[in-house]
Design brief:
Elements (H helix, E strand, L loop, with lengths): L6 H52 L32 E5 L6 H11 L4 E6 L9 E4 L4 H10 L4 E4 L5 H4 L4 E5 L4
Parallel strand pairs: 1-2, 1-5, 3-4
Antiparallel strand pairs: 3-5
Length: 179
């Protein structure tokens, strides 16, 4: 007896139909999850806004720009010497990562934070893994503040530079591959 359909043709349609149904079910699941998030978000959002407003009202207002605030003499745990103002903390920025123009960009950022940049140049060697903030004796607290202001990680005493090479700078930022 001759059959008009081969046995392999009977298997393919249900496989195709199964894949189409799975795709439709996946789209429906994504739509249901999205609708649930939107509906729950509408119910929760007013409570979140009220809590944020209560918390903001409970905290005292801070100055919007730290450099505009009146400079105070503060003390750190490591040093008992008062910090000098950012505008009087002179900085030198050296490129130690080999990327052309990196020191100029870092100097602009330091200047934007209120630090006078005395000199921008290249470090004697390149290949620094991390950016380092080095400080002259007596300027550790300023170096720690500079590190915090620019979101850096490594602070160390000055090593390997003569006072003439510093050109009056208290801090030296040597750029590395990572901040």
């Amino acid at each position: 007896m001759d059959h008009p359909l081969a046995t392999t043709d009977l298997v393919r349609p249900w496989r195709t139909a199964t894949l189409v149904l799975i795709a439709i079910a996946a789209v429906q699941l994504v739509l249901l999850i999205g609708a649930g998030i939107v509906l729950l978000g509408r119910q929760i959002a007013p409570h979140i806004h009220k809590a944020a407003a209560r918390e903001a009202a409970a905290k005292p207002a801070k100055a919007s720009h730290p450099a505009a605030a009146k400079p105070k003499a503060t003390r750190t745990l490591a040093h008992a010497t008062p910090m000098i103002a950012r505008a009087k903390t002179k900085v030198m920025v050296l490129n130690g990562n080999g990327v052309q123009g990196a020191a100029a960009l870092a100097a602009q950022l330091a200047h934007a934070r209120g630090y006078p940049v005395l000199d921008v140049g290249n470090a004697p060697k390149t290949g620094y893994a991390r950016t380092i903030v080095m400080y002259r004796p007596g300027f550790r607290s300023e170096a720690l503040r500079f590190r915090r202001d620019l979101n850096l990680s490594v602070v160390a005493p000055l090593d390997g530079m003569t006072p003439a090479e510093l050109k009056g700078a208290a801090l030296v930022e040597i750029l590395g591959a990572a901040r």
